[in-house]
Structures are given as C-alpha cells and as structure tokens.
Design a protein that fits this description.
By secondary structure, the chain is mostly helical. The protein has a single domain, classed as MFS general substrate transporter like domains (Growth Hormone, Chain: A), CATH 1.20.1250.20. Helices cover 81% and strands 0% of the residues. It has 15 helices and no strands. The radius of gyration is 20 Å and the shape is globular. The two termini are 32 Å apart.
Length: 289
C-alpha cells in the first residue's frame, strides 16, 4: 500500500512531458536558427552585398555567443530556475530573430544573430535541468535522446520547409514569422512551466540531498564539474562529432550541392537534412539503450 501511495504522489506522465516539452520546443527553435542560413545563402549575399567569407562569419556569430553562454547557462538555471531562464531567453531570441529579419544594415544582422545564439544557448541546459526534476533518474538518458530528436527536427524544418517558405514569402517574412512563434512560446513557457513537481503538489525526482540541502554554490559546482576527467572527454567527443554535421548541414552543404552539382535548392536541402534525420533517430535510440 505504501508503494501505491508513493506512486500516486508522482506527477502524471503527461504533465512531466508537457513541462519538459515546452522548453524542449525552445531547443527545437534554437536548432532551427542554427541551420537556417543554409537555405538563404544567395538571398543574404545579395541583400547585404557580401561574399562567402563574411557570410560564414555572419552565420558563425550564432555559435560565438552560443558557446560563451554554456557555463553561464548552467549557473543561471541553478540560480533563477529553468522556467524563468527559458522564458526570458525565448523572448530575447524572438527579439534577435526579428532584428535579423528586419535588418537593413549588416551590423544589425550581426547583432540579431549574436542575440539569438546567446539566448538559445540556454535551451538544452534548461531541458536537462527540468528532466532531473520531472523524470526519474533511469529515464534521464531517454529524455536526453528525445531532446536531440526534437532539436534535429528543428534542423529538418530549416531545410525543405524553410526553403519552400522562402520561395513563397521571402527570407525576411519567414524570419519574422519564426520570431512571432518564439515570442508566443516565451509567454506559454512563463505561464505553464514549473521548475519542480512540488509546485503542482507532487513529489520531485530530484535527489533527496538537493531537496534537503539545496544545490551547491555556483563556483563550487563549476569547480567540481571541471575537475572531472569525463567532462573533458565528453566535450571532445561531442565537439568533434557535431562539427562536421553543423558545418555541412548548417551552412555550406546546400550552396555546395547547388553550385557544384547543379541541384535545386529544395533538393539540396532535403539531402543535407538526411544527416540531421539520422542524428535525430540516433538520439532517442541510443538514449533508450
């Protein structure tokens, strides 16, 4: 009877997935923005009268700020909670996307991409933070895999669907529409998401020591993580495996296929999307294993 009582105090499965899934939707948007420039290369070069080197730098501005935000993201998620952090970040990401979509000068496009990268840089961290509270520990790898599935689905949306939208409405209108979607997402996350099941009257899955004693001080937690050998091994493995996919599928794959092989942009976007689809399938599959 005690086990049944304990189980009944856990949040319903649908609620756990809803709380986590809304923030995971922000991660999907982040991946969408990561690879979106690949299908608007010609438009951006023509609009801002730039060459390939400057275009590559414009696209990479996202990664500069995204990378710099990784450690602050973890500290902020611990400090103010994933709900506040992801809602504010989604709002800023929407503003950055709007700046990029309406930019009439190159510096404004740079500023927009910089703001988007910094904002969506918190998405994956907040997803993992919520997963630790709303799901049992033996489901953490599976939830992480599903996050990768959703993220790469965002990359797929930035392939053929975005290419068709640009053909029909133009790249500026497409970016403005995605900005509106992100701003709406910020409101939904703020209203619906809660950091912990206890805020809804259910038991939390976070470790008992955290409930009783709270999290470690930020700097102490950072020192503990960086002192682990596994942290650096995972950093190298993740970076080296992701870089080729993001470089080819995220920017240069589509123009390379269209210019070298004469393939239509939509067809080229479909080909590069297969890399993201494989990544998406591998995430939850390996997570479940």
């Amino acid at each position: 009877m005690k086990n049944n009582k304990s189980t009944s105090r856990n949040a319903p499965v649908w609620m756990s997935w809803l709380m986590w899934g809304l923030v995971a939707g922000f991660y999907l948007f982040g991946f969408f923005q990561r690879v979106a420039p690949a299908v608007m290369v010609d438009e951006l070069m023509r609009e801002f009268q730039i060459g390939g080197a400057i275009l590559g730098n414009l696209s990479a501005t996202y990664f500069y700020s995204y990378t710099l935000m990784q450690i602050p993201s973890g500290l902020l998620a611990d400090g103010i909670g994933p709900r506040r952090l992801s809602a504010m970040a989604a709002f800023l990401a929407g503003v950055g996307t709007l700046m990029f979509g309406l930019a009439d000068h190159l510096w404004l496009a740079y500023a927009g991409r910089l703001l988007v990268g910094a904002s969506v840089g918190v998405a994956f961290v907040t997803c993992m933070k919520l997963a630790g509270h709303w799901f049992p520990a033996n489901r953490f790898a599976t939830v992480t895999g599903v996050a990768l599935l959703l993220g790469n689905f965002g990359g797929v949306l930035a392939g053929v669907p975005l290419s068709e939208a640009i053909n029909a409405f133009g790249w500026r209108a497409s970016m403005v529409a995605s900005a509106a979607f992100t701003l709406a997402m910020a409101v939904v996350v703020w209203v619906v998401v809660r950091d912990d099941p206890r805020e809804r009257g259910f038991e939390s899955f976070v470790h008992a020591s955290v409930v009783e004693n709270g999290s470690l001080p930020p700097l102490r937690a950072l020192r503990r993580v960086t002192a682990q050998r596994e942290t650096w091994l995972l950093l190298a493995a993740g970076g080296l495996s992701a870089a080729p996919v993001l470089v080819f599928a995220g920017l240069w794959g589509v123009p390379y296929l269209t210019q070298v092989y004469g393939i239509a942009r939509t067809h080229a976007a479909a080909l590069t999307s297969t890399m993201l689809i494989a990544w998406a399938v591998g995430g939850p599959t390996l997570g479940a294993i």
